[in-house]
Structures are given as structure tokens and as C-alpha cells.
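A.,

Following up on our hallway conversation. C-alpha cells first:
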């Protein structure tokens, strides 16, 4: 959910706003009740440990490696000749 905040709120309550950005909240900044900008969190790379990944993929279907290679060979030009 996007919260509207005034320019004054941004200046006076920046600590709370930064904490909420860290939690994924988005803000529309207004001046004289007119929207002038948006503050939103940047996407960050987050570490996921191996046990979590194994659990996520535990129920995933098996990959048919030969079929995957055939699909890739059909779709991707792997000609070793340089393009001119």
C-alpha cells in the first residue's frame, strides 16, 4: 500500500519513513497537496541458504536433461564460425 506524505513529513519523520522503506513500503511525496514524487524500496539481492533452496525445489519436477539440450540446440545458434 502506498502512503501519501507531505514534504514536511518527509523532512521531519525521515527515520520512520526509512524504516518503512526497509520493510517494503512505498510513499508518494506531496507539496501543497499535489504529488511530486515517489519513494520506493530498491530491490536487493537477498541471501538464501542452501537448505531453503533444497526445500523449495524438493517437490519440483525432474528435468529431462536430454530434452533440455535438444530444446536449447533448436533455439540457440551455437555455430562456432564468427559472424561477419
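Then the amino acids I'd put at each of the 84 positions:
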Amino acid at each position: 500500500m502506498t502512503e501519501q506524505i507531505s514534504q514536511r513529513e518527509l523532512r521531519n519523520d525521515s527515520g520512520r519513513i526509512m524504516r518503512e522503506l526497509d520493510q517494503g513500503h512505498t510513499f508518494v511525496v506531496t507539496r501543497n497537496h499535489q504529488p511530486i514524487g515517489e519513494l520506493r524500496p530498491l530491490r536487493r539481492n537477498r541471501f538464501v541458504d542452501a537448505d531453503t533452496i533444497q526445500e523449495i525445489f524438493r517437490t519440483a519436477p525432474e528435468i529431462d536433461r536430454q530434452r533440455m539440450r535438444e530444446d536449447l540446440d533448436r533455439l540457440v545458434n551455437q555455430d562456432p564460425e564468427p559472424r561477419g
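The longest helix spans residues 65-75. Curious whether your intuition agrees with the design.

B.
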